[in-house]
């Protein structure tokens, strides 16, 4: 059942839509972690009566919520026992010595009991203890701190939660409390949060480091202390959330300075004390109460992303002390010229607004450090005064159709984050131009992140400029982008030119993230094939549709994430991909992809073959499979000579193959070498016939839309199997550890050939039933 809510709909209209959708039907509804009863009383309670029958499961910490909803049966979850809590504590601290576990056990159990048996409290106190010497005396000192008995706090925030805040260094306390300006349960983006910390002045300058590097360290320290929860779907934990109890703690401790709600509801006596405002309102337009502008002392003003709001222009006159103004997604069409009076402003975020121009008075904002103008669909030019923003550290204009920029961006010497550097295509003898010269980058010595767009418009430069990027010692993230290809073919001259441009854009050795997008040269730059990028951790090659070979990146010692998308000229991926056969890597000498954890290959319509070794070695492996024990022994001996230990993908945990329509076979080395593989997802690999002999795959296998797939076999450690759109899958066997089988509705008939055997195997090996679930 899918019910779409339109932002223009009233509650009554949504109730009618809900009632008509479930009329005379049965439903099962889960309301998880309910803190407020309004969702039930104001929205759900009336329309749900239209259903024939229904079951509602509610989880909440508040008995009052359960009574208002009118639950029939209540199940109270027991608190964690002291002994289970002690195990969670020492395992969260990564204590491995049995003697140390025993020595600290009694004090540890006391600490667990002081945490009230709450897993969150145990996890945060574990990180407090981890920063101390692991002795009973040190732990006793922690147990004796006054923070355990802080009586002025609500009961649920006392003890370990408050202590985890109390022991933070001063600068981290500020950063933690600032997270209260985010709504409950919202995803927090690392870069947005750290920029606001910088704008508020929370980040102290450290020698040899940019403020952004220090702020990022603070962010990961809060994650390490379990005060922020990383989003598991973001590979580098660049997204996170805040547990509702920890957010309550931050809101409570900053309640006199931070306000979340409709500022119109506040009196002037309260509003003049507020320093940070997050606007959350049911109204369409937000206005501030009439009050003398000198009475407003707010330093941060944000509108909630949850609902686009109209913003009254008076805001720009009233909030004269602002440092952070975040109007992301607001219904703002113009910025008044008197924004230039906000002389304290350090961060201006207009991401996703409808503005069509910025006033030249923006040049008066001499303290402005961050200017976000991304996804502004109606904005086509930057004001001349942009180059007068002498303290600007970030300019973000990606996904905004800018075609006129002021000359002289190289004058912004503190600029370190430039998302959307447009390459000039025409004459640069005017104050305004359609992009910038690459040579202007030479003056930006602090660049930390750089997106170069429309690189096909660049012109080759002299050999004296080849260090354009190489000497950028702070550069960590680099995107090299051409315009996405049109239908017509590129001329040989343009292909040669773009290859030459990319060849000369040699990144610095300290680069960590690299994206190459819509490159239409036939060969990748040679610096990608050497050991030059020894610090690289993330690499994405997207829409590189003319390259017939992938670069040999298996030698990169720190590469953790690799994504390849729509390399349409690729028909075969062979040993050259890992470095074999090009003179810089052999299995006997090195490990290929030594730290790679995630490999994603998608939208490869012409890719047919995949191998990691030369053809004669593949033939020997095939012979061993067909020729019995003697051939197998010979191949084993040959394999041992080639690879005395795992030489390929030893850290690979996740492999995704999506829309690889012609791929016929998975390389057998995956089953022999990828010893850490936990997840394999295969989507729409129409020609793939077998998935077998992956003896180290230990978590999840998902196969969907694989029309020719016939066999899934010999996956002894797989615990979850998802299958859909595989009409010829007639054999699934030797999955001895399988716990759960998820079958899409189109698999019901064909799966009857092999589900009974899987169920029997489960019963024989484990004595219980295989869980078979309809997957929709």
Automatic annotation (TrEMBL):
Residues 12-91 form the NB-ARC domain. Residues 181-250 form the Disease resistance protein winged helix domain. InterPro entries: Apaf_helical, Disease_R_plants, LRR_dom_sf, LRR_R13L4/SHOC2-like, NB-ARC, P-loop_NTPase, WH-like_DNA-bd_sf, WHD_DRP. GO terms for biological process: defense response to bacterium; innate immune response-activating signaling pathway; plant-type hypersensitive response. Keywords: Plant defense, Repeat. Residues 317-602 form the Disease resistance R13L4/SHOC-2-like LRR domain. Pfam families: LRR_14, NB-ARC, WHD_DRP. This is Uncharacterized protein.
